[in-house]
Every structure is written in C-alpha cells, then in structure tokens.
Design goal:
The protein is mainly alpha-helical. It has a domain of 66 residues. It contains 3 helices and no strands. 13% of the residues are buried. The mean pLDDT is 88.
Length: 95
C-alpha cells in the first residue's frame, strides 16, 4: 500500500488527465468522480514499484480507461435488464 504522500503527489500530478479521460468516455460529471476515486484507490492499493514516471502515468491512464469501459458495460447491462423487466408486464397486459 502506498503512503498518503505518494497518493497526494499522484493526485496532484494526474488528476486532470484522469478527469479528462473519464469525461471523454462517460460524459457525466458524477460518474467521472466515481471513476476518479476508483482509479486512485487502485493506485494506493497497487504495491508493485513503477520503473519510471512514464510507466506510472501509462499505468494510471490504462487503469482509467479500463475502469470507464467496465462502468459503461455494467450500466449498459443493468439498463437492458431494467427495460426488459419493465416491458414484459406491459406486453402481457395488452394481450
């Protein structure tokens, strides 16, 4: 687990990049903030050392993109299930 000092340094350095990537993918401020927290939590829990600052930045960018994709997949699935459940009773009532 990384120290609070390391976490603060990473947030200062990469916060803007993470938010921009999230907004491009999610187009929603509250979802962006959720993924922002997720990315930096993963950073704090990641124990392997980075080879260089470039490696650290690439890792954060990749984790951000993957978290956005996972979020979009999960909301798409729950949205489809909700529509299906909501539509079925209406069709039964019409028949």
């Amino acid at each position: 687990m990384r120290s609070e000092e390391e976490a603060c340094r990473a947030i200062d350095r990469y916060a803007d990049t993470v938010r921009r990537i999230c907004m491009v993918h999610l187009k929603n401020y509250s979802d962006t903030e959720d993924i922002f927290q997720t990315v930096f939590l993963k950073y704090v829990l990641h124990t392997a050392p980075f080879d260089s600052p470039e490696h650290e930045k690439a890792w954060i960018i990749r984790v951000t993109i993957n978290a956005c994709k996972d979020f979009l997949k999960s909301t798409k699935t729950s949205f489809i299930c909700t529509i299906t459940k909501a539509t079925l009773p209406l069709r039964s009532a019409v028949s």
